[in-house]
Write a structure and sequence with these properties.
By secondary structure, this protein is an all-alpha fold. It has 2 domains: about 10-35, no CATH class; about 60-125, Winged helix-like DNA-binding domain superfamily/Winged helix DNA-binding domain (Arc Repressor Mutant, subunit A, Orthogonal Bundle), CATH 1.10.10.10. The protein has helices at about 10-15, 15-25, 30-35, 60-70, 75-80, 85-100, 105-110, 115-125.
């Protein structure tokens, strides 16, 4: 709708000059203000991708990748040789740090945040070789 003035009824009520002025003032509004005015639901900010500045500890990253592989807390505990309660704590910390409410969100984040080959390996519970 770029370059369009106000809708015909609003434009006619204001007049051409005022309609154009209102349109151009609207272009300067931040997207959040427009979303608020239109009563659009707020967008959840995307979780940060895994990088050198990952928000998770290396152990939490392991747990997130195991969640992405479909492992239960009991399976995660057995694979990492930790107690089930510790695995549950790691999962809770991951959910909190990433601002998620479900394991499915963690799985999607972990999968999307890994390089293609590493994601396929991690889904099978295999550690990617370090070259």
């Amino acid at each position: 709708m770029a370059g369009e003035a106000l809708s015909p009824p609003a434009g006619a009520a204001l007049g051409e000059a005022a309609s154009q002025a209102a349109y151009h003032r609207g272009l300067d509004l931040p997207a959040a203000a427009v979303a608020y005015a239109l009563q659009w639901p707020p967008k959840k900010p995307p979780a940060p991708a895994v990088s050198g500045e990952a928000p998770l500890t290396p152990r939490e990253l392991q747990v997130a990748r195991l969640i992405a592989a479909g492992r239960s807390n009991k399976d995660i505990a057995a694979q990492l040789v930790i107690s089930q309660r510790t695995a549950e704590n790691h999962v809770e910390h991951i959910l909190t740090k990433l601002g998620f409410t479900s394991r499915a969100e963690v799985a999607a984040w972990a999968t999307a945040s890994q390089p293609a080959d590493e994601g396929r390996l991690a889904a099978r519970g295999v550690q990617a070789p370090v070259i």
